[in-house]
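Translate sequence into structure tokens.
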Amino acid sequence: MNMKNKQSQSDPWKRFHGPNLGYLNTLYEKYSEDPGTVEPDIREIFDQWGAPPLAEVLKNGVANGGSKGKADRGTQAISKAEQMNVHVDKASIEAVHADKIVALEKLAQNIRTYGHCEAKVNPLKQEKDQNNRLLDPEYYGLSEEDLKGLPATMIWPNHDLASNENAFEGICRLKKLYTGPISFEFHHVHHLKEREWLTQMVESGELDQPISTEDKIELLQSLTKVETFEKFLHRTFVGQKRFSIEGLDSLVPLINELIRSAVSDGVQHTFMGMAHRGRLNVLAHILEKPYEAIFAEFHNAPNQELVPSEGSVGINYGWSGDVKYHLGASRKFTKGSEVSAKVTLANNPSHLEFVNPVVEGFTRAAQEKSDQAGYPEQKSEQALAILVHGDAAFPGQGVVTETLNLSRLRGYKIGGSIHIIANNRIGFTTEMRDARSTKYASDPAKGFEIPIIHVNADDPEACLAAARLACKYRLLFQKDFLIDLVGYRRYGHNETDDPSTTHFQLYDQINNHSTVRRLYADQLLEEGIISAEAVDEMEKQAEVQIQAAYKKLKEQEKHKEEYDVKDTYKPTSAEFQEKLDKINTAVPIEALRKINENLLIRPEGFTIYPKLERILKRREEALLVDGYVDWGLAETLAFATILKDGTAIRLTGQDSERGTFAHRHLILHDAENERTYSPLHTLPEAKASFSIYNSPLSEAAAMGFEYGYDSFAANSLVLWEAQFGDFVNAAQVLLDQFLAAGKAKWGQQSGLVLLLPHGYEGQGPEHSSARLERFLQQSAENNWTVVNVTKAAQYFHLLRRQAAELQKNEARPLVIMSPKSLIREKRVYSPSTAFSEGRFEPILEQEGLGKETEKVKRLLFCSGKVAVDLEAELNTEEHTTLHIVRIEQLYPFPESRVSEIIERFKNLQEVVWVQEEPQNMGPWTYMEPKLKALLPESIQVKYVGRQARSSPAEGQPNVHKKEQIRIVREALSQ
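Result follows.
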């Protein structure tokens, strides 16, 4: 609202009614006591227009109370109300005190705000809540007679809602709406239009619209399949874990309703992420994974006594595989003859909530069209994310909050996700009082102004209503929505656990509680919609279908040969490297010069900060015959040529638009008006989109989002940059569970590039190491490429090679230990010919050394920044018996090339590995056995570097400097 445009809004209060007007009255009370306690925009309204209508009515009525009679106060109230254009019943209001109106307004508002405290959303029991008294008219001094003397229009100024009721009838209806099997929390949503719409949806009765007889029978069939499937698994595969959905059976029809509604609204792809609970049922009855395929995974599981607590492993031969309740699936969803969409359930490890940002990354990628220059075109209506959370995990795992924070940021928003908390009200054995510090599991969502519905899982029709509201809200407001599905857990955390040992009373109650299928069948029987015989037949048919699938599996097992548990053929590192070497990444020098010219063009009138202008000006001569290209320009040229080849690029990270070390500057800012411009968006040669965003201060969710985006947009070059390499620690779960092992476990391919600033420069233990040793420890099966490069041209060719691999569908992640101080070190600059004639070299040899092979007795191997430090101290005339080799690509290890170098020096006496990291970190423990295997037994591999430590680096710059000098001098000593 434009508060200053008084002429166009002669009466601003006409825009507000019902609870919104009540909300303004509540704010005005706070404003009257202390204007500083309300938001500035609301305070400006009150400053300019005074009190809202009802507040003024009450103010006059109460202020003039004293010894005057009811009729006098009522007359004054009516007069003021008419001036404010507020509809009231004159006959009724003249008969009551104005303070009754105040009480009624507060009662109605508190029913709307705190009705969830008394709602019937728990299938097992209703807890006492101290806020319940706020819903009691007696708490406000209101009797039934008082309420019957007031019109319902005092609750609903909207006549369509008020009908012909009095206030007593209106309050009864209001309590029914807000304290039934669905309860609502949306008063934390600050946007008045959203809150007004949500209130209208609740109070108009639209959510209570009855469903058809056919839909009721279909719903019962769905619940019957869910329950029958779980019971069959329980008795057939005794003692095997399945993380049963029983107690939350309505989750399946709830998700199906979300998908149906979304498809009707134009969604073409739905992505789902969920934890273990109910996953097999979702796979069977939403993703339509054949029963026999699920049974086979149970059948092939090893003895339960010989496997870890999370279940069976090794069930997928030829690759590492994963347990059955981690695996995802996809299917085509159709509605009618024309509307169809794809539904995908993401693979998910036991770090339950870490799949959330991955799924949102999938969704963003599916929404974007990236075949033109500039930012990609996004259509959020094309794809939807549904995230199913655990009630213990939602408030308990920080990645949830990180992901929620992404929801409205320009680089990550997807038009709203729909969240479901599969709330069985207990963790493994941990009760709510020990699991969270909030009343509800859903409370973290309030900080992001996400509307919340709590719904009783034993009321499947209410669950469908919740789904429809969620979809309508997302479609209209493009924001997240949360459904808290409240149920219970019929068995323990898994089916091998006996929960009664710690929760006897709870499970005594659960064991005597009817299933939702039985409850709903009884409801339909009572309504006369279905007969008892039809209910029994429905269950029988579900059982027959399952038994047939199991029989089919058993028949197949009789004729199946024993598995030969061997990995399928995978290329060796040498074979893989040979394929990479054949990729031509050089770009003709004239093409590079033309691109560079276009990169330096600015829009007319665009003023660049003078210091930055001088930096960019130097790039004009970088590609001349005697020119040199620095790290930042090498990257920009790589991006430009990749876009020229038609590959889209997405780069995100903390401060990535300019670069943490102010080296990139791909988004330029006008020094006079702060408008922005990227030369890569207007590059004439570009044939694909370029996205670059500064990320929030997040690692886990931010990296997970990019992994998901990259996995879906397989032909785009996606890069995530850490502000400092150390920060990747906060995303370790994503590295362990997804990036390093996703292909081995799930066959999920990714070409994500990680840019991790790494190098020891005296900045302390938190800004030195990207934990290179961890990546090397996880390197196996050609799962990724790990490099530590020291030349600008090397970086250029690496990026181009990675983009080329994507187009060949041979992608794997690329982990780059990128430089910090070296970004501006001239020894890292590369001549222009290195870009037009070169390629990426896994190994670089020190120039000026090793030419007289017979003289070389001492061979130094190193990687990264320490190699440049050695070069800076090197005197080639003095060190004639020394040669230095840089391992630029650590994994896959370039064995054949290292071996060739070793064999070249026949008089070799000593081999040394040099690093700046502590001995128990960095590449040493990875490199030592590999070098030993290539050397004669008479030559040992020595170590020069920091001693083993618990912390990666010194905290004092002067101590660091002394240690760095020692390492370099010891390495170069004859």
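Note: The mean pLDDT is 86.
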